[in-house]
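Researcher: I'm comparing several assemblies side by side, and this is the next one on my list. It has 610 residues spread over two chains. Same procedure as the others: predict the full complex and return the structure.
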Amino acid sequence: MNKNELVCYNTDGSGIEGKAKKVVFPRNVEEVRKIVNNNNNNEGIVIRGSGSNIVGGCIPNDSVVVDMKKMNKISFENGNVYAEPGTTIKELNEKLKAVKSEFPIFSRESTIGGMVAMNSIGFMGGYGNIKDWIDQIEFVNGRGEIIKVGRADLSDVCGMEGITGIITKVKLNVIPIKERSFSFFQTEDLEEIWPIARRLKLENEIVMLKFYSKSVSKLLGFPEKYHVIVCFNSNRGAIKGEKYKSILNIIEKDYLYLHSQGYCYREDPQLFFDKLKDFVAFLDRLKVPYCGDLDLGIIYPFFEEDDKKKEEVMKMIKRMNAKPGKYGIGIKRKDLLDRLEKRIIQRIKLRHDPFGKLNKGNVIDINKTDIKKGKRIEKEIEVSEEIEKNNFDEVIEIREKITDYEDTFKSELGDERKEEIEKFVKDITKGIVKKEFVDEKIERVGDVVLDDNLSRKSGKISEDDKNLIDKIMFNSSREKDKEEKEGSKGDKKNED
Amino acid sequence: MKIEEHNIKEEIKEIVGKAAKSGIINENCSVFRIMRDEQYSPKGKAAMLDKGFYEKVFYNCNLCKACEFGSSNLCDAFQKARQVLVLQKKELPENKEMIKNLQKTGNVYGIIEN
């Protein structure tokens, strides 16, 4: 690759510029592992998918860029779908179409690796985060170890924005293809929207509640009114078939329409449903174009370059305690994290990437002391491994010594001594008294006979013994006793 | 720098400045879907043009306009970038051979008819 061509890897969707040192294209897990192991601590690694992140998630800082796009295999094993991180969701769905199924976290250009790392929400918010649709993730951590995590530990990678490991394989859940439909709700009064949206949020069939301001709806070619576009998971909506597809195409590319009008920056504050009303009213007063996902509680205000309104809106977002919605934290929005959240992320980061190799400066800043901590942990692990090794060596040495010991103290018998021993052994057998085993039920434990010294007789049993046995086993003697007793009672009565 | 080249470069900068540099413009690019290197993608090419780098990668474009959206016309920018490359005499060896063949035999393949 040419030096000038490296410029392509300096930026992503955020517009922030960094500097890529070199670019590598791994094709399998082993290559990823080699890249991590051969990397210097100072260089650092930046993982890149499609580069559509708008918060600076894959901006290199004179570091090596690992482009995952060439790891794009999709496989079907035992009814499960395995996808490598470089596959885009569009490519995955194109393949899944052959087996009449689909992956419902829709996104056009994003790669699976990128979406998993950001734990992003798809185009249809009703399906939730991508984490809910993953069973297993395979990744290479900062130490160069290949790790597989199940559902319980997905948060070690999912949503960490690539600071803990490089994702190499993902096991996905898919659903059968569904026919969907749209319904439109138009109004000029903003107050009408909130009760309707609140009611629609409760419906299970609804997977998307898209909201457009007057100005944005005009840009998209709709009448200049507030619009709520409802997407049903069934044929319940009014717009189906080809019309559905054309409107879906418009909605998916709404931000590109706005970009072409000069609105190239957008934010994604996530608010409580009750606060949305005030925030939207505030945006209307400032005449900021916006759209939103009402089911998720996210409003996207759009800004032009050097827009003075942006500062005001950002202040309001902070005042309303909004959380970052869809786009993650990246380099741009580290301030939005709490101290506790930062500490938790830091711990997970140090556990998987103690040297701070992966995505430096992303999500959290790691100080030199933290890296030292990490190194200390690493050293401790190395020391323990050495101890284990040494112990193992010691054990082998001891065993060797024991065998030597046995060999050295083996009696070297002469022929005379051997004959004496043989004689003694033969005499022992003469001393053993042979026993006649009367009963077959004599226990044998190895060569030892367990005898209880009780004489067991064979032959006829006397009548008394028979009666005794009958008494014990069949209670027959009792009947006789009863008869005798009854006989005796009758006699007594007669006497009376 | 020639005046013609300078003018073309300015036009290119204007077009690229307006265009969205999001990943979505890569979505329909057939060349990028096969090559999977960022420099072959419309977004990557736009980034290069933004910096004023003109490389032979611009020849690897179908000029199919699949990357165009709304008012952005990136494909025109790529076509103009090729003009600049020709003016700078940065040609592919295949092109040179083609021209030679044309001069010699009258066809691009260099086959002489009996």
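Model: For your comparison table: Residues 444 and 450 of chain A are 6 Å apart (CA to CA).
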